[in-house]
Write a structure and sequence with these properties.
The chain has 296 residues and is α+β, with helices and mostly antiparallel strands. It has eight helices and 14 strands.
Amino acid sequence: MTVVAAHFDPHGGIAYDQRIMSFKAMDRVSILTLTGRILVPFVGGAYHRARLEGVRGQADLVLRKGKWYLYVTVEVPDGAPVDPEGWLGVDLGIRNLATDSDGECHSGSGVETVRQRMLRLRGALQAVGTKSAKRHLKRLSGHEARFRSDVNHTISKRIVQKAKDTARGVALEDLKGIRERTTVQHGQRAMHGGWAFFQLRAFLEYKGRLVGVPVVAVDPRNTSRECPECHLVDKRNRRTQAEFCCVACGFVAHADWVGARNIAARAAVMRPIVAGIGRETHSCESSLSLAASPSL
């Protein structure tokens, strides 16, 4: 029998639970090390501090780019579920990241501008290849993803709040497998590949649960080709990426708004049952930055 010795990364992540980790104040955490317990200060925003009482289960201590982070899982109770009086349809896209059935549009131009700027900058730095350029590339790592995530957080918060204020649920297209079903021109592949629709949908779902707003997915077929007035489905209705003009009744509108209206109408037909859902809890992960300590 061959015995394989275990190998541990000296800076690998360390898992902690409530027995060997505890919060002593709103800015300090006590963790157990091989040389005994140490008290480490941490940095966290008001959002994190307000949720520390809900800490449950495992936390992971990790080292990223010379800084220590404590990934803490907290349990947050879901909001009291409501029986929606209607539905706010949301059409997800690339040029317009989200357009709702009320006509409010959230443009993706800012995300695309950052993507192109990062692409040009990375290419220029890689072409230089100096040590300074490589250090710059390392600092840029994750910048685009963080920016995209921040935009999706902002959009999802706005949509869920609007739905809550108007006693409506949120309806989306079921876009599972959309990347495999669609083809784009060569020059648009990077834009298509960077489309973070799944992240935006995930943000909408968990923010909806927090305040009791139901989020449902509907069949996406022909939502951009069906006239919301006379309900004719014809591919000729979609003249361009942005223009919709019904060949039967002459209804004209922005194609994304038409799609959002059709999504809301399909959700109303589905009539999902939400009033009987019990109050639940779900977990989310917060990251606290620990002050550097030679003992860690």
